[in-house]
């Protein structure tokens, strides 16, 4: 009863129920069920080959699933598209492509119903939000990994989404860049009331930034607040033989707090 | 100069010029997508596949152009469907389908008796061969394609740049692919009489590739590709009449010279710039 009242109060940004996906006859995801409430910073974590990329692509509507349901803000994925901002991993395009940073951001607004002038203003706003106004006219091929990530975040937030999804956000940026990235994320989240979902193989991200964690290894292994959800048993199921290393890390971290 | 004016007064040259300009604009602006989507082999494949359509047209004693158009569109869509519904890579699918079509074309040609000037025209391109009907078809179809492409321009660019993100924003990426395949098939066939099957894909690739070397934005890439392409068509057509050689070869040769000049010119420019900076650095440190 209490749970029912709580779910009415807290709308779910993401709701996945009994999701099954098979690829070439092999099960990739089995009976995966989880929720992310509006306003959370969630991390979906799993080792390589755990099915997290498949789950991400299913959430984005880029991949069809065999059975189960996915809803975003209580709508089907195709209806909720405009509410999602997606920041892909690394450099998802040909670096020689002749486009400027501003053009990249503007592309995502092709059907946003904006006049030319409004669209230009929105592009500048988005680039300013991520601290990339000064590189607006630079060709994307000339930019560093961190700068490209900023441009891709600007592209995602330009549509004013409610849910921002990142695929392996720490790939291709150095330690300092990573700190700046998470600072930026915290600011954006606060300013624009975003729900954030990061997909990562890196358990550190969970401890540093997540309010909610979902771990998978083909099946759902855990979900909840990181300190409750990540038990040594879960580590073992996630990482197998490597688990002692990770369990140790989590243990140490637990002490630090 | 006199020779130029003399040419311009000739109806056959006027027809070739109009068709050439339309074809130059079409191949360049759509060629940018060919280059950026790494579809050069598609152009080659569909051009060769259109030989079967041309052979059917010649055999049935009708205008081969519309027959080749329909045939090339069918092949281009088959390529898309085979790619989507098999594990085969795009170049493999194109390799298979274009060889089958070309073989059909060659078998059909075997049924003809004697010398076939029409077929030579289609293989290598001929300024003299462009009829008033061809010019009319080229202008009407070409204008329709440009209008359709302008209408779908943001979706074409977005899906070329980042397919997943485009899909997520609501671009129907499969339909856009299908549209681009059909559009390229039509452009290729429209260009065949002037440039010839053997070299037509070069007109899709070379001006766009030249432009990519020097452009920073997408719009400027399209603009310079059109400039290079129209320039090549004009000079190539004049050259082909002047030297009495196949128009296709001359047009592609001019486009190739542009490319090589810009390619090496840019290299030299960049290395001179780097050297100057190095010298300036050394001077400031010593």
Structure explained in plain terms:
The complex is a heterodimer of chains A (257) and B (286). Chain A is an alpha/beta fold and 257 residues long. Chain A has 2 domains: 10-73 and 164-226, Rossmann fold (3-Layer(aba) Sandwich); 92-161, no CATH class. Chain A is 41% helix and 25% strand. Chain A has 11 helices and 10 strands. A 6-stranded mixed beta sheet of chain A has the order 6-7-8-3-9-10, sandwiched between helices. In chain A, strands 2-1-4-5 form a 4-stranded antiparallel beta sheet. In chain A, α4 (101-107) crosses α5, α4 (101-107) packs parallel to α6 (145-157) and α10 packs antiparallel against α11. The longest helix of chain A has 18 residues, at 175-192. With 286 residues, chain B is mainly α. Chain B has one domain (2-285): Orthogonal Bundle (ABC transporter involved in vitamin B12 uptake, BtuC), CATH 1.10.3470.10. Chain B has helices at residues 2-9, 11-36, 40-59, 64-84, 90-110, 117-124, 132-151, 153-161, 163-169, 173-195, 200-214, 218-243, 247-285. The longest helix of chain B is centred in the C-terminal third of the chain and has 39 residues, at 247-285. The N and C termini of chain B lie far apart (57 Å).
């Amino acid at each position: 009863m209490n749970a029912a009242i709580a779910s009415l109060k807290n709308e779910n940004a993401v709701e996945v129920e009994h999701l099954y996906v098979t690829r070439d006859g092999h099960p990739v995801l089995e009976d995966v069920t989880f929720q992310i409430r509006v306003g959370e910073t969630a991390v979906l974590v799993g080792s390589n080959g755990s099915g997290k990329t498949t789950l991400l692509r299913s959430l984005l509507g880029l991949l069809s699933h065999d059975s189960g349901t996915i809803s975003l803000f209580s709508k089907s994925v195709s209806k909720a598209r405009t509410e999602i901002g997606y920041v892909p991993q690394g450099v998802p395009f040909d670096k020689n492509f002749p486009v400027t940073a501003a053009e990249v951001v503007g592309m995502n607004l092709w059907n946003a119903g904006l006049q030319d002038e409004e669209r230009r203003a929105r592009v500048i706003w988005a680039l300013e939000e991520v601290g990339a106004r000064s590189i607006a006219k630079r060709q994307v091929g000339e930019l560093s990994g961190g700068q490209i990530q900023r441009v891709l975040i600007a592209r995602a937030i330009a549509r004013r989404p409610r849910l921002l999804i990142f695929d392996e956000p720490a790939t291709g940026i150095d330690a300092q860049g990573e700190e700046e990235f998470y600072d930026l994320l915290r600011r954006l989240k606060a300013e624009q009331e975003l729900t954030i979902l990061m997909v990562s193989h890196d358990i550190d991200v969970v401890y540093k930034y997540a309010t909610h964690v979902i771990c998978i290894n083909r099946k759902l292994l855990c979900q909840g607040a990181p300190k409750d959800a990540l038990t040594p048993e879960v580590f073992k199921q996630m990482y197998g033989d490597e688990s002692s290393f990770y369990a140790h890390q989590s243990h140490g971290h637990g002490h630090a707090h | 100069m006199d020779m130029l004016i003399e040419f311009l007064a000739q109806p056959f040259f006027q027809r070739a010029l109009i068709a050439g300009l339309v074809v130059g604009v079409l191949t360049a602006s759509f060629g940018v997508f060919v280059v950026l989507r790494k579809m050069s082999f598609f152009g080659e494949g569909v051009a060769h596949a259109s030989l079967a359509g041309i052979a059917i047209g010649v055999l049935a004693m009708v205008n081969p152009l519309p027959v080749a158009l329909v045939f090339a569109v069918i092949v281009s869509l088959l390529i898309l469907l085979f790619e989507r519904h098999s594990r085969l890579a795009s170049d493999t699918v194109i390799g298979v389908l274009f060889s089958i079509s070309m073989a059909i074309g060659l078998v059909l040609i075997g049924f003809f008796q004697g010398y076939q000037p029409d077929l030579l025209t289609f293989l290598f391109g001929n300024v003299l061969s462009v009829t008033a009907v061809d010019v009319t078809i080229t202008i009407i179809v070409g204008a329709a394609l440009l209008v359709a492409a302008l209408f779908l321009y943001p979706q074409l660019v977005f899906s070329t740049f980042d397919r997943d993100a485009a899909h997520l924003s609501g671009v129907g990426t499969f339909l856009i692919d299908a549209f681009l395949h059909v559009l390229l098939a039509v452009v290729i066939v429209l260009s065949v009489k002037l440039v010839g099957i053997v070299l037509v894909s070069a007109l899709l690739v070379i001006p766009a590739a030249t432009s990519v070397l020097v452009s920073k934005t997408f719009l400027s890439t399209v603009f310079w590709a059109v400039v290079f392409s129209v320039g090549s068509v004009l000079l190539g057509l004049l050259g082909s009449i002047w030297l009495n050689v196949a128009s296709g070869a001359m047009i592609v040769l001019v486009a190739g010279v542009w490319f090589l000049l810009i390619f090496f010119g840019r290299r030299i420019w960049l290395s001179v710039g780097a050297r100057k900076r190095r010298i300036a650095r050394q001077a400031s440190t010593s």
